Amino acid sequence: MAERLVRSRRIYEGRVISLRVDEVALPSGRTATREIVEHRGAVAVVPLTPHGDVLLVRQYRAATGGTLLEIPAGTLEVGEDAPHALQRELAEEIGMRAGRVQHLATFYPSPGFLTEVVYVYLAADLTPHRLEAEEEDLEVVRLPLPEARAMVDRGEIRALAACEVLNEGWDAPAVKVGVVLGGDVGLTGDWSDTRHDALLSRETGSQPSPLPRFEASRFSRSSRRTSPGSRREARARAPAPRAAP
Length: 245
Known about the structure:
6 helices; about 240 residues; elongated; Nucleoside Triphosphate Pyrophosphohydrolase; alpha+beta; three-stranded antiparallel sheet
């Protein structure tokens, strides 16, 4: 049963996040306090080259006190939709524009206290297109996809979006991307023309479909540790999240 909001007060209003404290009534009749961090949402992108390499970004993260290797990602601007945001992030962080994109998944990274929703995409047909980035210490790192996955297994890539997406076992029936470990990547099937996506988003105000376009039982690789009750399958079966306003 859902909790009922009794009252809410805003504690902090920032450029990236805001903090509110909610008092809620529980189904049992007791009351509780919820500390909620509000966030506009974000995009994360896996840029793939025709030879099966993935382009990652190494940057310093003050919150961790160290440098992380990540997939390109960033916060949605006010009024910005995910198709526009992913192209902006690619241009700012790796100096590229994607000719084709495919929505992989949508997830809540920390639903216990954070409203952020992350939209994850594959991107291909990359062409040079540079926009100035806020960060001054970005380093683009090109790796074969199998090596990037091995780095996740070794704990050398630790950012959540990168770990979740790179460690998934894409196969051709699942996401229409034929990935052969140690070989080439064939990009086929249900990819989106980015101009069409942008037009659709402007006309309808819609975000991408909130559910991943795959079946959990087919989103696995035999060399990965998966099971019918795994966390990834549970996430895929979960109700579709709604983007925070």
